[in-house]
Amino acid sequence: MAISKSQQFFESLWYRPAPWWLWLFLPLQLLLRLVVFTRRLFYKLGVFRSVKLSKPVVVIGNISVGGTGKTPLAIYLLQWLMEQGYKPGLVTRGYGGTAENYPLVMDDDTPPEISGDEPYLIYHRTKARLVVDPVRSRGGQTLIDLGCDIVICDDGLQHYALKRDMEVALIDQSRELGNGWLMPMGPLREPPTRLEQVQMTLVNGTDMTLEPQTIKGVGHTQPLTSKFVNGVAAIGNPQRFFDTLIQQGFEVLPHSFPDHHQYQGADFTDIEGPVVMTEKDAVKCHHFSEDRMYYLPVETRLTPEAEAALQRQILNLLQYN
Predict the structure, then answer these.
(1) CA distance to 151, 242, 256, 311, per residue, from 212 (Å)
(2) CB 314 within 8 A of CB 81
(3) Among 26, 28, 65, 121, which lies 20 to 30 A Cα-Cα from 113?
(4) What distance in Å separates the CA atoms of residue 70 and residue 78, rounded to the nearest whole number?
């Protein structure tokens, strides 16, 4: 089902001047701040156990809810590292997957409903070693046992049970940090000061961009000829995808679904005309695809300065480990 109007309304409050009644949630925000502070302190003091792996760990994450471009950046890093002759692996929680046993080592036969949409997409785009495991330290160790010499942790900035050698935080340029408050008053999982502790912060829209590639059919090769399309997205920031389609010259009727939504054929019954979705959405639609369904793949492009800085730091990790 599509995102309800009430969901859209409350999320929109985080990215515009807030009404007075939003302050009623102040006690909950303060409680979350206390929980975040206490949790980090307990890991620092050793009250909670944090596992150090024998190979470098690079965490990609954000401090806000919603999409910031973590998956495309993970794909970029895996592809670049393999081009340099390394054997990277990626560990991820696999949100939305239904695996009964972990760690789950991805292979060509693992369906997206088992692994989750993002692991499926990353694996099939890169063919890198990929393990799905809510216990990321266990998943990371599995990657090392499989021969990986560096572990990329997708969306693990707040997963302190796994020690990391480098943290890369992503911010969406169009949304930034919203009103700067923690949930439920705002979109943040941790205070903005958390960004002072990461090794690198990338802004999706300035330091990096997601460049559209050629639109492809979902399970078919028919070309898209219409300039009117139904934009379909179940990602953290669907408007960014719709804006991309508009920039490509399409007239777009948007259809938003909850992030990681598990599509069914019935979701498209009332949608007339051609459909263009994200690649992450498309992997979940192959078993009921129609000739009117398409997806728009994207490639990560970093500015020369950001690319050089990111690559230099990762190569330094590999050199001294």
Answers:
(1) 27, 12, 19, 23
(2) yes
(3) 65
(4) 12
312-316: Cβ within 8 A, 24+ apart: 313/166, 313/199, 313/200, 314/56, 314/58, 314/77, 314/81, 314/150, 314/166, 315/84
Tens of pLDDT, residue by residue over 17-62, are 878 899 999 999 999 999 999 999 999 999 999 999 999 999 999 9
Q: Where are the alpha helices (DSSP H) in 172-273?
A: 238-247
Annotated binding site: 64-71
CA distance 303 to 207: 6
pLDDT (average), residues 293-305: 97
Confidence of residue 3 (pLDDT cuts 50, 70, 90): very low
**For the chain, domain boundaries:** 44-209+304-319, 214-296
Binding residue ranges for ATP: 64-71
Which CATH architecture best describes the domain 44-209+304-319? 3-Layer(aba) Sandwich (3.40)
The pLDDT, as a whole number, for residue 9 is: 65
Q: Residue 110 burial (CB < 10 Å; 0-12/13-18/19+)?
A: buried
DSSP state of 321: -
